Amino acid sequence: MRRTGSTTGRRTTSGLLAAALALGGLVGLGAQTATAPSAAAAEGDVNPFTSAGGFTVYAQRDAFVGNQELEGSLAAGRNLARTTAEQWAVIHVAAGTADYTIPTVDGDPARLLIGRFDPDTSTNVGEVNLTSRGATTPENVGTLKMVDRDLGPFETSARGESWVRVSQPGSIPPLIDATAQTYPADAEPPTGGNTSIFTEQTGSTQDVVAGYIEADQDATIDESAQCLADLADPDGQDAHHVTVAEDDGDRKVLSPLAADRPNVVAYEDVAGASLLQFSAGSATPGQENPLIIRVPAGTTDVHGLRVDPQGQYSPYILWDLSAVTGDVTVENTGARIDGSVYAPFADVTVDAAPLDGQVIGRDVTLLGGEVHSFLFASTIPCGAPQGTFEVSKELDGITAGDLPDGTTFPVDWSATSPDGEVLGTGTLELPADGAPVSPLSVDGTTATFPVGTVVSFAEQDPTDVPGWEWGDATVAPDPVTITADGDAVVSATVTNTAERTEGTFEVTKTVTDGTDDPLPPAPEAVITVGWTAVDPDDNESSGTIDLVSDGAWDFQAQGPEDDDGNEITFPVGTEVTLSEPDLPDPPEGYTWGEPSWSPGATFTIDRTDQVVAVDLTNLLVPQEPTASFTVTKVLDVDGPVDPEPQFAVEYTFDPPGGPRESRTREIGVGDPVTIDTLLDGEPIPAGSTVWVREPAPTGGDGVDWEDPVLSVDGTPLTDPDEDGFYPLELDEGQTIALEVTNVGHVPAGSFTLAKELDGPAAEDVPDGLTFGVGWTAAYPDGTTTEGTTELSPDGTPAGPTDADGEALDFPVGTTVTFDEADLPDLPGWDWGTPTITPSEITVGDGETAQVTVTNSATVEHGTFEVSKALEGADPGDVSAEGFEVDWTATLPDGSTTDGVIQAPTDGSPAGPGREFPVGTTVQVTEQEPSDAVLPDGWTWAVPTWSPGSSLTIDEGVGTATFTVTNSAVPVTTLRVEKLVEGADLPDGTDFPVEYRVDDGPVQQGDLVLGEPFVADDVPLGTTVEIREADPPGVDGARWGTPRWAIDGQPLEPDDDGWVVIHADDERLNAVTLTNTARPTTPTTPGSELPETGFGGGTLPLLALGLLLLGVAVRLVARTLRA
């Protein structure tokens, strides 16, 4: 819609100008200057080109004309120069438009209003011819008006029919011919009776010209520029911003234009185009909706364009260069430019052929062809802010999904200006999803309103929605005001509240047998009716209704209730489905027919407070005698079947000899099927005959089926009819058990594999090895399976098995290939390339193919040597030639062999004289060498082995080497004496001891009372550990803890009683072991020992006293060796 409430901002300035002139008179009649008053602040709609005062071209300073022709008028604040030597005609119309009137200056129609004719004849070189050709009325016959009465190098003269010529003496160009003025009268200053070539006002030429030109302007140039800048703001509401919808390079098509406001397009969007077009169906530029091409600041070159057809849109197109300063060129060289060029702050050059429009600039240069006076005829909003409003829908209690698709809510609006004028009314259709909606203009763009406009709303009654009841609508805020300090778009929300409406149902039951005869007595029973309800939101609920019989087949109407007995209601639109899942047993001799529901088992609650009455009718059907038969499938197949076979039984009640209709039922193995109805679904009457047969089974590919055997109670049926059916007589109440047996044979076979070994090491293969032979079976249907069978090297045959170890068979025709890739990984062993015979088999029925896998077994051998190393003695000090070493070899197969090697004393290696298979383990032990081969005072220490006393013969080694090192060490003497306290023991009493040297084996010894224990050959530097075992028993006494000492210094035993003696000095000769006996019974006063059975107070063994004095005991000398 057109913006309403705006007023045209044009001001009537003739009176203001008269006042200004009167004011000038008050200053003095001799005043030489007068200034037109400034325009008031812009307000309303303005035409920026009113600042040109009706002139086609307005140069605020200098005008340089180098084009062919001007069909219009020109004003220049300072100089006018014709920059080419050709004649420049200023006419009314030739090829352009005559639909304009030229302005007046001092009451005279004027074609040229200039400060002066440029006196610089170096740039002003041509002729200016004012003819007003094409003018048809006196007001369009234009004159020359100049402000400066000092013509400088020029003079006036008569020319032609006595018109006025301004030229250099002798009519030398540059010159102006004013053909509408007469020489000499009009060549004089104005007298009130002439049509002078000079203006009445004098002074600053630029100010005087501006005073004439800008006196009637709608707004100052600065104000118009600001208005244009405001329109260019993309967030504003006063303009419609246009984009390029189609870009074809030299041709561009704009997006649809608004019909009620200016349309602004950025120059950079259309730059480069020579032709501008409008989208199909779009509004086109006009007085209310001009097209403004906004040129950004900093631009120096603008490529002009045309909008066909010529002249139709030129008055409504404005080239807005108000943001540009400095030099700028608007050119479409050799081609037309449509629209007026507004460059009030720039020195603008226009080069077109022609320009259909006006020009305002500081300095203006015209190049190219003609300029046609298509005066800009539109206005732009200025100083009157605009805004709009939007309304959205909000729902409470109901959602958009509850409404039919496309539901909208009509809301009426009315816009009123601050002074009470109704600016517009309309209706908005608000979508239920809450999307905001604004009022639209006739061209489909958003309508705008002046600031201060008040908009009120009223919602029409919303559309009825089944199952819902609308409450009162609320609008917030209502009204809304378009405010200057608020958003450009103010919002309102219309809220509608809705509530669900509900209804329910009830069921009435009727029982009949379809006749008027009395019904059999009714049982007292409860009949259950199930219900399932799905509401409009797809929420599902369910329950049951109990219909109670009073014994006379009378049932009261009953509806759904909750656990507390309250009626259940449902939203309108709910779909209810009823069922009767469990009927009580019918009276004897009857069966229940199908229930009948009215209006149906499924219905919809479609209005508020509705109670849908449902009638349920049950039919009692007299029962006729019936019969049935059962079919059981028995399957006997001797192998796996894939795919599993499917079986069926076919039966008919039509006798042979005529048309027969039959039915087929699938039968699973071990899953009996009972048939108790005729083909039409009715019960089988007693006494009926049914004919049965088995169709050929499906599936079970490859199975050889025998003819099926049909039997009843173990007796096979015989004599089928011509169609292969067997008759069965079905008596009343009898269910015949029919058994159908299928026997099938699955042709299958298998294979076995056996391992055969040859080669030099065939007999040496270790026990427990197995050889994995892979096999791949390709079934006749193209599928495959694979596996591995482990073979023993002893040649025992083995066949394929499944995961449970069960033997596998394969369908006849299966091809099996073999591959031995999993060979035992034994170091040094090689199995050669296996030979598989045959390499492929084809399975035959009942056959077991024999396959042999042969390997050649070879194994790498090696041996070992023993070298002797001596420490502490040179070979020359040893009287033996060698040392005997025992060896035992354990072969990979577990068997053993042994021998003895003489290891030379000089360290040269010695071996067993044979080789062993790789993997053999060798254990070596040196026989104990004699100390006799060493010098006196020396003994052998414990031998050591490198790398150890056992090794394994590895592949690639050849000969492994043992080194046994014997160390000769000097010996010392250990002497131990036995001391006893508290007991009188005879010489020769034995005290057992245990000892070991350097953690060697524990040895047993006897320490005899009365003899020192001497060891002469203890290796020097060794450690001797010794402890006492259990001492001999003494009647009436017990032994205390033994005490060890060396050279009188006590030795502390460890927790196990061992004392440590280091064989490193002469103190070994002073070791003592003392035992103390303590009484176990009371003693006689003065006696140290307990009383005994002798009755005396003195121990019979008088020699004990001597022992207490330190009788020495010598233990039989033993040799302590490691």
TrEMBL record:
Membrane-spanning parts: 1099-1117
Pfam families: DUF5979 (PF19407), pAdhesive_15 (PF20597)
Domain DUF5979: start-end pairs: 389-498, 505-618, 629-743, 751-857, 864-967, 974-1076
Domain spans labelled Choice-of-anchor A: 48-372
Protein name in the entry: Choice-of-anchor A domain-containing protein
Keyword Iron: no
Signal peptide feature range: 1-36
Source taxon at top rank: Bacteria
